Amino acid sequence: MPHCILEYSQNLEQEVPPVDILEAIKGACIASAIFSVEDIKLRSVPYKSFITGGQEDAFIHVTLRILSGRTCEQKKRLSHLVLESLTKFSLKDVSFSVEVCDMDRDTYAKKVIHSE
Prior knowledge:
4-stranded mixed β-sheet
């Protein structure tokens, strides 16, 4: 945990490779001291069609899905660390946003199957 989902306008790929943004998000998650590096899961979803404020303005939105039980302060610090990591890229005319969503610890199910 966490599941870090990067959504972004595809036009940003010309300026910053998505893997660089994912690495920045990972670094912020590690800096939060809430998660161990092997538990961080990252993925990205580019959007070819998008409208922000009535225009095709670039955006980056990160959703951090974490197991319930963290304090509001921990979640706030996490979102601010991720936002800071995103704004360090030399991007202009971009909307950045981060949200932290709790996943119910009691109902979350997971199973990893390894090859033999």
